[in-house]
Design a protein that fits this description.
Length: about 325
Amino acid sequence: MVVRAGAYDDELVKTAKTIASPGRGILAMDESNATCGKRLASIGLENTEANRQAYRTLLVTPPGLGQYISGAILFEETLYQSTVDGKKIVDILTEQKIVPGIKVDKGLVPLTGSNNESWCQGLDGLASREAAYYQQGARFAKWRTVVSIPNGPSELAVKEAAWGLARYAAISQDNGLVPIVEPEILLDGQHGIERTFEVAQKVWAEVFFYMAENNVTFEGILLKPSMVTPGAECKDRATPEQVADYTLKLLHRRIPPAVPGIMFLSGGQSEVEATQNLNAMNQGANPWHVSFSYARALQNTCLKTWAGQPENVKAAQDALLLRAKANSLAQLGKYTS
Ligand code: 13P
């Protein structure tokens, strides 16, 4: 049997450890142009390159951000973009000791033969795109696929999600990028927390099965799971302690301790809820770094505070720093509301 020994293995392990360092987590700012457009529309701005650049400049320039943030996931446009003052965004991040990352999937499309589910595109040409992203300064990647509980999930959808993630992870490692493995289990639905737990167990079993088949180096990946919560429309709500109990039980059953970091997505939780849940998970020792890779739960107040007005930039950056610091404390299990 030939086992892949990658040229980048040492570097991958080092990058993953840097991102999974105490008191720090990831700022997900990799909204596609379409999603960024929706965010801008919510504050009455047009989806122009200039507006996206202004917003992304605001996100990467708060002084001291690197104390709480170890990595920033960028959309391709931003990896090649400069700030409004003409400085490369990648350079600003590196100066702040924030590792630049890149979203590499090409989004979701309908999965023929399934129960109205989807699959994630992007494997074609991935190796050459990633080699170029590495040259541009990216050191980690993200691939987000989704699993829907109300629509099944069907065996087919779970297998497709897991296989795609495993191929992406192997190709990323071959090109020097630490893959963030993100099978998002969508919050939508009326199901209870037990059902989410059951589906998550199935999904992670398959993801690790196929990653092993593809000779992925587990020490050089990061995971981006959904927390185990009740469906968004479920009447029985869960406390942060219940979310932490179920989620840690899932991780202990399914995630090898070789994996350095678990960086949760916020998935539509409120800012405070996402912080409280993370804090509850860090009340005891864990075999992995348990942290955050939030987009909405870091950006919501920041975006609203900015409202596209230059005079609000400082207040908006303070709002981002406030959430970043709160989640940094939650990573250390020391957050108090
Ligand atoms: P949210 O934290 O807003 O769920 O976004 C994280 C992310 O990167 C989704 O892929």
